[in-house]
Structures are given as structure tokens and as C-alpha cells.
Structure to design on (271 residues):
């Protein structure tokens, strides 16, 4: 009887640690999401106060692709990158938390689980940071060209609609289904040992797979308006739904909405 009590006590203690660790993980994720949402809303409000530039073709260009008076390009790029990282953290956390949860289960019980989870998350968002570094000069170049070429600017509304239709059509492809299946499964890139190197590698792996999987969805806010809260909210919902809801129904439903929205944009531009 005594040996049974001695054996069950460590098991009960271990379960208590697991529950506490899971609560800390979910609580930290919720706080990060709330903080990111608040900062994103404030940033969007500040961008709205700066106004937008009216362009030929009856549309407006965001000021985020332009330097403020007296601002160096390096400062503009740093400001954009900070905004981009916060926005990505807010948009991707709802779908990232389940993936990190699977990582935690695979690693198992360890005193360093919280730090390893945080390191995997940092690796994940490093990938998105690199993408942001690449996006900024492309956005600046496109904005500059559109300001210099009125004919091109007039075509932007129709081109935007066509682009949304194409991006929505990708939801029905085997490419999309394959990437979604990969995101839903435990990683096969490496043995998930409870060490720093593996956590970092796993975070990078998640970031690469995730960025490829939702590239077409993330392109929507970029071409419609990066700080448009409605576009960001819809993209966040679509990314989360297609990861968590049964596949491929969810991905195809998102595709139907995207194609319909794109056709609406084309019709409005042609009217």
C-alpha cells in the first residue's frame, strides 16, 4: 500500500506540472495576441490620420510605402518591419498555437519546455521577418512606378480584382491541399529532442511551411491595404479556419469567398 502511494505521488505531481505549463503557454499566447491586436489597431489609426494619396483610377495609396519628411529610407524600412512583425504575430498566432502545442506534446515533459517553445516561436517569426524585409522594397518600387505611370495606376483596381481571383483559385489546387496537410501533421524534418538547436530548427521549419501554405491568403492584405483592419481580420479568420476546420472543405470555402470577392472588384473597376 505504501509503495502504491509513493508511486502515485510523483505521477500526480507531474500531471500538475503539465497542467500548469499548458495554462502558462495558453495564457502567454492570449496576452501576446491581445497586445499585438492593440498595437495593430493603434498603428492603423496613426496611418489613417496620415491620410492616403488619391490615385488615377479612383483608388488611394497607403502612405506606408513612402518616406515621411526628413525620414531616411533605413528608418522607413525599420518602421515598416516593426509594424510587419507585430501584424504577423497578431494574424498568425491563432493558427500557430495548435502547431506549437503539437511540438510541446512531441518533446514531452521537460523543465525547459517553456523556453524551448518560446525559441521555436522566435524561429517561426524570424521567417516572417525575412519576408517583411523582402516585401518592403517591392512595395516601394510598385508604389513609385504607379505614381510615375498614370496609365498603370488606372489599371490597379481591375488588376487587383484579377489577382484576388487567381489567389482564390489556388485554394482548390493539390498544392494547397498538400501544404495544409503538412501544417496539420507533426513535423518530420527532425527528431524532436528537448534541446535548443532542435527547437530553433523546428521553429524555422514551421515558419517556412506556414508562409508557403498561406502565401496566397497573406497576399490579400498586401494588395488591398496592409493596414486595413477589415482585410487583416478576414485574412486571419481564413488562415485559422482552413488550418483547424476539416480539410479540404474549409480551404475550398475560403476559395469561393475569395473568387467571389475578386470578381466583385473586377466588376466595380469595369463599371
Amino acid at each position: 500500500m505504501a509503495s502504491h502511494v509513493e508511486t502515485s505521488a510523483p505521477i500526480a505531481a507531474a500531471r500538475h506540472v503539465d497542467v500548469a505549463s499548458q495554462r502558462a503557454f495558453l495564457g502567454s499566447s492570449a496576452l501576446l495576441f491581445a497586445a499585438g491586436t492593440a498595437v495593430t489597431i493603434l498603428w492603423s489609426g496613426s496611418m489613417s490620420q496620415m491620410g492616403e494619396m488619391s490615385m488615377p483610377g479612383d483608388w488611394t495609396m497607403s502612405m506606408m510605402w513612402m518616406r515621411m519628411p526628413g525620414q531616411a529610407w533605413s528608418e522607413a524600412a525599420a518602421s515598416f518591419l516593426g509594424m510587419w512583425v507585430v501584424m504577423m504575430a497578431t494574424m498568425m498566432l491563432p493558427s500557430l498555437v495548435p502547431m506549437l502545442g503539437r511540438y510541446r506534446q512531441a518533446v514531452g515533459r521537460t523543465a525547459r519546455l517553456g523556453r524551448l517553445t518560446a525559441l521555436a516561436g522566435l524561429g517561426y517569426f524570424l521567417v516572417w521577418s525575412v519576408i517583411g524585409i523582402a516585401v518592403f522594397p517591392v512595395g516601394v518600387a510598385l508604389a513609385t512606378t504607379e505614381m510615375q505611370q498614370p496609365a498603370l495606376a488606372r489599371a490597379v483596381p481591375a488588376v487587383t480584382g484579377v489577382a484576388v481571383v487567381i489567389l482564390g483559385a489556388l485554394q482548390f489546387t493539390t498544392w494547397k491541399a498538400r501544404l495544409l496537410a503538412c501544417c496539420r501533421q507533426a513535423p518530420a524534418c527532425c527528431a524532436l529532442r528537448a534541446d535548443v538547436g532542435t527547437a530553433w530548427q523546428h521553429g524555422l521549419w514551421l515558419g517556412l511551411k506556414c508562409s508557403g501554405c498561406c502565401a496566397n491568403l497573406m497576399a490579400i492584405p498586401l494588395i488591398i491595404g496592409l493596414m486595413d483592419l477589415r482585410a487583416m481580420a478576414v485574412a486571419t479568420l481564413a488562415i485559422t479556419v482552413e488550418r483547424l476546420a476539416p480539410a479540404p472543405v474549409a480551404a475550398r470555402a475560403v476559395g469561393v469567398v475569395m473568387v467571389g470577392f475578386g470578381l466583385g472588384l473586377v466588376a466595380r473597376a469595369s463599371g
The radius of gyration is 22 Å. Residues 2-270 form one domain.
